[in-house]
Amino acid sequence: MRLLARTLDRSRYRIEVIPCFRKEGMPDQSHDQLRALGVHVGTTAYGLNSDETVDYLRRNFCGADIVISSKDVANIYPALERLAVRPPLIEHGGLVSEALSGPKHFTTRYVGVCASIRAAAAGRIDPAHAVEIPSMVDLSEFDPAARGPLRAALGIADGQVLIGRVGRLESKKRVENFIPAAAVVAGQAPAARYVVVGGPDALMPEYAHDLHRLSENLGLGERLIFTSDRTDVPALISAPSPAADPPSHGAPPRGRIDPRVVETSPLKPSAAWLQNGIPPRIEQVLLNAYADPVEELSETKGGSGS
Predict the structure, then answer these.
(1) Contact assessment for residue 83 and residue 107, using Cβ atoms and an 8 Å cutoff
(2) CA torsion, ordered 64, 70, 74, 78, to nearest 10 deg
(3) Residue 132's closest CA among 258, 279, 277?
């Protein structure tokens, strides 16, 4: 939504965001970031029951040119059913289960963030109307000059290795694999430090507590930094030396082999785990980031070449 807010012609389009669900503990940073871009974020639905939310959406959809549904909003279809003239509906899904959920007879287009999600949607609607658009970033937000100050703010000395991962703390992100791996590396490189960027998931806050406990039990102590939610994530990505992104089962593929990390890091390697949909994306970024992608990736993975 932030990318749309920055790029859409405001003389032709006005964006209104209507979040429909909130759980205690969810951060407000998305609301704040959108409002800073001049986007109206209406939170009325937070205080409504299901039927009231459907009617609220119906009234807001009247006169809309396009409706975009993100994360399988259950109230969308009942609201559209109550309209005589319906705006085109574009659904955006980040999980296969979202593409398979609910009716699709009003869905004009379905956008999946990876091939498997797009394929699931293609089984529910005209395959020509299901498309794959990987998650996007705004490259202007990445500033290599921020690396030094950010590392200093984290207490990382010049030349000290910092290994990081970025993402919300939820079980499908498999952060519990990153922490034991950090403990193994700590035994071989005692000076290395680790950073986990991302806050608790409000639907499973206990998972974040479990990760903190795991870090303590493995003796990582102050060597592993939990930053919680941050608004400067693009800048933070430049701070680690290697960056790691384990697989997220059920979620879109991710490959944290990032040219911005490579360009700003004195050590350069990043690590990603191959999974559904990801090899072409890794290959593309590697070819842009490394002079010899096969050799560099093999060295990053300790010669495994995987």
Answers:
(1) no
(2) 20
(3) 277
Which residue, 199, 195, 166, is CA-closest to 182?
Answer: 195
Ordered by where they begin, the domains of the chain are: 2-132 (3.40.50), 140-300 (3.40.50.2000)
Q: What percent of the chain has pLDDT over 70?
A: 78
Cα separation values, 302 from 115, 157, 297, Å: 29, 25, 9
Residue with tokens 């400067």: 232
Contact 146, 220 (CB under 8 A): no
pLDDT of 258 strictly over 50: no
How far is the CA of 209 from the CAs of 38, 203, 204, 222, in angstroms?
36, 13, 10, 16
C-alpha–C-alpha distance, residues 145 and 77, integer Å? 47
**pTM exceeds 0.90 for this model:** no
Type of residue at 39: V
Q: How far is CA 76 from the centre of its chain?
A: 23
